[in-house]
Amino acid sequence: MVEAQIGSGALITADYSLEQNREVFAFPGRTTDRGSSGCNRLIREGRAKLVTSSEDILEELDLTVAVQQLEIKAVLPANDEEGRLLALLSHEPVHIDELSRQTAMAAPTVASTLMMLELKGAVRQVGTMSFVLAH
Description:
Strand content: 5-15%
CATH class of the largest domain: Mainly Alpha
Largest sheet: 3 strands, antiparallel
């Protein structure tokens, strides 16, 4: 819950959620703001978990491991081409032509594969057509 006045529909929904043993999360607001009075009361009474960022929810629901697994999966090579390129890259820049030569892959294949790896956050381009591992 981000905003709720005392007696609002949002608080009624929070009460129903609590009756059904559901987790309720609330973002705190200024004590002088009527729109925050419901959230602040739920937090003060211990009926809602205090939230200041998305990480608070992930930690409370024990979902941080799932997010980390997704991040790891995004870095794992999806195919042989990605695996071959990742094996040649380090923190030292390597030009795309050199990667093409070492892998015996066609330049367009190397370029498109590097672009996919860059979108995944596994590699990044430094300088003109040179790449390094992002991690």
